[in-house]
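Practice record 12: protein with EPZ.
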Amino acid sequence: MESKREVFVVRGTAGKRTLQGSIPVYGAKNAVLKAFAASVLFEDGMTLQNVPAIEDVHRITELLEKSGAQVSFDKKRTYTVLAGKKFDTNLDTTLAKRFRASVVLTGPILARYKKVSFPHPGGCVLGGRPIDVFLSAYEALGVKIVHKSDRYFLTAPKGLQGAIINFRVQSVTGTETIMMAATLAKGVTVLKNAAMEPEIVELANYLNQSGAKIEGAGTPTITITGVKSLRTNNVSYVTMPDRIEAGSFIILASLLGKDVTVTHCEPLHMESLLQHLSMMGVDLTIGKDFVRVRGNAKTKLTSIDVKTHEYPGFPTDIQAPMMIALTQAAGESTVFETIFEDRLRYVESLKIMGADVTTMNPLQVIVRGPRSLRGKELESPDLRAGLAYLIAAGVAEGESIIGMVYNIDRGYEKIEDRLSAIGFSIQRKIL
Ligand code: EPZ
């Protein structure tokens, strides 16, 4: 994966605001991966549009192909997937272990083919990342589960049976997976304490267009009345804009932008972030599908306390980029990560760059700013912290080298080309 040691080389501006122009947001990773999983539900195939060219998309298409689905890439950003009668319901171990969203495939596969086997899913290392929520929901739907040799074997020979499921924790992929499984179950399923992320609403809307009966997506209670089969009837799925990518670009522009417009985004999905940035003193103009950020040498950012929360709260996926903004804000800020138990470890590298961050405990840090950062050599620990390192490198003085670029490519398409287009100094190199 990294044998050639591919890196990003970033030349920082020592905090000088040089970025100008517009930067478009691409399709959302955490929406489109679930749509690929949904493709298994449809007997007549599915077309997906506005698909970003990111590594996790390549992994899920490989995984689908490995199971026998026909995947084709028609034209720019458009895929079609056809899962036919013959489908290997044993997910490939190596591929499934490479990304968390592989577990989402289990819902549609089980619903349509009545069995599935899979390894414990991989993905970014953010803590334990258990799947108990999925397993107990499957049990409630009448699935028999055997766990042996590090693999789960799930069977429901008579199909899934609708049930009332009260999720122990609000889980994004858990909600999506069980919601999809229940579309083909017998009877009614009620999901309580469901996650409310916009990607879930988008998925439910598409499934409903294709014959599913889902009510309440976007609220904590989702009711699904099972139907016999689903057909897309040639209606394409169009991937929504990535709110995390958009938010990260807006943070970058808040720090280094003279006049940057982040386009093709959905500001209504970023209310918490935009509110935090406005309170910090960022000059934002919020349009229907764009956010413009302006700044000059006189712009001063002020500290703020950030606590991550399930949607519509402050997203955990924006916590790391936001941390960089806080290192440049005057005063003392606190960050409290409440979703994942191990998502603050990357701050150790920021300290080496000169950030004044005190770790109170694994979930809470204090950030004092503003502090000048120095360019360093870093390894991207996961995709969101990787992007945060690029932002930190842009703010720093001198050159930084960011390794483990696969972690960034997992979620951001050609980031170097897109950031260069607004004047950010970044190059992909093989060292
Ligand atoms: C999704 O992960 C996203 N991934 C994550 O994005 C995102 O950070 C996260 O939701 C929270 O918004 C995808 O959509 C592919 P959860 P997910 O289940 O679904 C605990 C990124 O960078 N939990 O909502 O895996 C879990 O440990 C990624 O794009 C259980 O205890 O997150 C966590 O503490 C990283 N048991 C909390 O719930 C379970 O069975 C919320 O996790 C499942 C989850």
